[in-house]
Design brief:
mainly alpha
Length: about 180
Amino acid sequence: MATMVKVWDPLVRVFHWSLVASFATAWLTAEDWKSLHHFAGYAAGSLIALRLIWGLVGTRYARFRQFVRSPATVIRYLRDIATGNEARYLGHNPAGGFMILALLCCMSGLCFTGWLSTTDAFWGTEWLEILHVSLANVMLGLVGLHVGGVILASMRHRESLVHAMVSGRKRAPAMSDVS
């Protein structure tokens, strides 16, 4: 059996699954259960704020400086995926790091537009509601891409990234892996 190493700390894992739950709850309650929808939105916004702080001061693999890479690096990595030559990363790979930023930005916009729509200044404003719904749809698309990327990376590197996000552990890096 391969040696396992700790990668994802408890805060990252609880954040991840809590954000999944709050987005799913908000999505499912958008039309019929406004109080729960608002609660889920506030929970998501609070989680995002916590993750932004943890991205600056958290553990090694939680920090933005560990996984935020240049656009050129992300494009090279996507090309490597297309040719089947992508490296295995112990932490987030360049595409995964970009996806995290996209998800954080989109969810932040979604929370902000949702909050704005509850204020006196923007209550019932049609363009804001359209923007909020559009961001929710973009978020759903990003989630689909994220899940697809997780499945692809799990198959290519023969390790369950979902299990890693539950247990916090991944297979120890080989010589060719990026740690």
